[in-house]
Design brief:
The complex is a heterodimer of chains A (103) and B (272).
Chain A (H helix, E strand, L loop, with lengths): L2 H8 L5 E10 L8 E8 L19 H6 L3 E5 L19 E9 L1
Antiparallel strand pairs in A: 1-2, 1-4, 3-4
Chain B lengths: L9 H10 L1 E4 L5 H12 L9 E2 H4 L5 H6 L2 H11 L4 E10 L24 E6 L10 E3 L18 E2 L3 E2 L6 E6 L4 E3 L8 E9 L16 H7 L8 H19 L9 H6 L9
Antiparallel strand pairs in B: 1-8, 2-3, 3-10, 4-8, 4-10, 5-7, 5-9
Helix pairs in contact in B: 1-6
Classes of the chains: A alpha+beta (103), B alpha+beta (272).
């Protein structure tokens, strides 16, 4: 039995679990293009992982809303630190979505 | 077969500076690929950090013959110069149906050198198919300052390279590249042999510079990738301009006047 199967069978029917979708957008606007994505599945029925797909699940953040995902966090806009204005690091425009799933 | 190292052109080095890696498909002969599987089944010789290549890899050893293949030797010499030291080497093995992928990461500690870089050689002795889950590489990620697996949250980025290749393929990567070993969903054991090289000379004009002033150099350095955010993508090109100034020894190199414009400090004229 895999961990996923174990998790699923352990959950009594009728309970609610959370699925999380993380979208990274081209700008800080929610209707901007998706450039990166990650999924985490609290139902245990799928195990999304690194490098498992080339096509984003949605073209924009708004497209995820239209499909029933609920936005619960967007990245703050933080000005560059003086002296580090040209340095690049993590993706800046991170949006967290959830879906509640009845098992 | 020629044993003269095949140096890279300026355009190829510019492509490396933009992408953060160089791919040499099928350059290792079939008999060496077969031999490699036996070599990798055993223990690799221990190489202390910072050992010169001839001492790390004795003549006729597999690794020595690998790095002396003309195309590999030429590319290495073009990027890290003559007489690099071996930082470390390791065989990464992924078992069939191994349940996990590596999180997206950069190797070692966060490395902030603006004027030097290490090169990691990755060698694939067998065909790598999609379900074998080859190395995931994010083109153009190498100049972003991140620490090891802090990028693990990012599962997929638009334009990522999910490596599939023929046996005998070698990749040379900037030390800062975001990458990870993908999950192996096949019935085949997958091997990847990695060697990290440290330069021992300034990395300035080490390649064949006859095409240094070709417009294609700027075209390569100005490339964007689908996962770049609009604004940050411009900063990536600015950062490449700075790196190219170092590598080419041309302190005035620029693309579309970007670096020159923002460095402009006109002297105040006297009001008298």
């Amino acid at each position: 039995m895999t961990l996923a199967e174990h998790e699923t069978t352990r959950i009594p029917a009728g309970v609610t679990r959370q699925q999380v979708l993380v979208l990274y957008l081209s700008t800080s606007a929610l209707d901007a293009q998706v450039v990166g994505w990650a999924r985490y599945d609290g139902t245990g029925t799928t195990r999304p992982t690194t490098g498992d797909s080339d096509e984003p699940p949605y073209a924009t953040g708004v497209a995820a809303l239209e499909d029933g995902w609920r936005l619960f966090q967007a990245a703050q806009l933080i000005p560059p630190y003086p002296g580090a204005e040209h340095e690049t690091s993590f993706l800046k425009h991170e949006f967290f979505f959830e879906k509640l799933v009845q098992l | 077969m020629s044993t003269t190292p095949q140096l890279l052109s300026s355009v190829q080095v510019a492509r490396f500076v933009a992408h953060g890696f160089l791919r040499l498909d099928g350059v290792v002969p079939a008999e060496m690929n077969t031999e490699a599987l036996g070599v990798f089944a055993g223990d690799l010789p221990v190489v202390p950090y910072g050992t010169p290549v001839p001492k790390a890899f004795p003549e006729d050893s597999f690794a020595r013959r690998l790095v002396e293949l003309p195309s590999v030797a030429g590319a290495l010499r073009s990027l890290v110069g003559p007489d690099p030291t071996v930082d470390h080497h390791f065989v990464h093995t992924r078992q069939p149906h191994e349940g996990s992928a590596q999180p997206l990461h950069a190797d070692a500690l966060i490395d902030v050198r603006p004027d030097a870089f290490d090169v990691q050689l990755m060698y694939y002795p067998q065909d790598v198919t999609a379900d074998m889950g080859g190395t995931l590489v994010v083109p153009g990620s190498h100049l972003r300052r991140i620490n090891e697996s802090d990028t693990g949250r990012y599962q997929n980025l638009l334009g990522q390279t999910r490596l599939t290749c023929t046996a005998g393929t070698v990749m040379l990567l900037h030390h800062g590249i975001w990458h990870g070993g993908r999950r192996n969903d096949s019935d085949t054991v997958r091997h990847m042999y990695k060697i990290r090289f440290n330069p021992t000379v300034p990395q300035v004009r080490l390649w064949d510079v006859t095409d240094l002033n070709s417009p294609a150099v700027s075209e390569e350095l100005g490339r964007t990738f689908p996962w770049y955010e609009g604004a940050t993508g411009r900063l990536e090109i600015h950062n490449r301009i700075q790196l190219w100034r170092t590598l080419s020894g041309d302190a005035d190199f620029d693309i579309d006047y970007w670096a020159t414009r923002i460095a402009n400090r006109p002297a105040l004229r006297s009001q008298a």
